[in-house]
Amino acid sequence: MFFHMITLFLFLSLLTLLIRIFSARLIIPAVGVFLPVSSLWMGFHMLTENESWTVLLVLILIDWIKS
């Protein structure tokens, strides 16, 4: 879980930096692609750490609600 929190922190820091450097017009589509992919990636790693399938389903549901 600690690794997932570090990943999220680094992603948010990078996102803030990119928004300052580039226009939001370029960043928003990139985030729309990255968030579902990253949540599936984190869900897969949680499952390989003997977590339940419920965690993955919740992550997918959250991404579906956001979009």
How are the SSEs placed, and which strands pair?
Layout: H1 2-21, H2 24-48, H3 53-66
Task: Give a brief outline of the structure.
By secondary structure, the protein is an all-alpha fold. It contains three helices and no strands.
% residues in beta strands = under 5%
Class from helix and strand fractions: mainly alpha
Helix and strand element order: HHH
Shape: flat
**Count of separate structural domains:** 1
Q: How many beta-strand segments?
A: 0
* Secondary structure tally, helices: 3
Q: If you average the pLDDT, what whole number results? A: 72
Proportion of residues in helical segments? over 70%
Q: Roughly how many Å is the radius of gyration? A: 13 Å
Uncertain stretches of 5 or more adjacent residues: none
In whole angstroms, how far apart are the ends? Answer: 25 Å
The description of the largest β-sheet is: none
What is the subunit organization of this protein? single chain
Overview of the structural elements:
This protein has 67 residues and is mostly helical. The chain has one domain. It contains 3 helices and no strands. It has helices spanning 2-21, 24-48, 53-66. Helix 1 packs antiparallel against helix 2 (24-48) and helix 2 (24-48) packs antiparallel against helix 3 (53-66). The longest helix has 25 residues, at 24-48. The mean pLDDT is 72.
Characteristic key phrases:
flat, 67 residues, 0% strand, mainly alpha
